[in-house]
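Input chain follows. Return structure tokens only.
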Amino acid sequence: MKKEEIKKFLIKIQKEQHKIIDKFNISIEGSVCDTSSKFKDVISFYILNENGIIKDISGKCGPCDPYAYITINILSKILKGLKLKDIRLDNDEIYKRFVRELGTEMDDDMRFHFETILKIVQEKVTS
């Protein structure tokens, strides 16, 4: 992603002011070490699971680089309504929805964050 695309997306995230959901029965924490920066992305997701379906989801990240913030934001939008068993890295629909929401193709840093964070979620919800 270009710097101006990242900045534009971060402004969009700030305007939306996402909040952590009140009711959740799955809590996910993990860290993503991005070798391209000095940040260690510490991520958290909160999921309301009803009968194997994500009824609500929110996430937060800190301290994080912009790629992690963007990834958390998009995944929180696109995973809602999906079955837990469908949260997989090889799920083409998740990839397509992520790119569509992103509005551009993923560069290496974005792909790294997408794949790593989705894998953290997948491991927790399918264990």
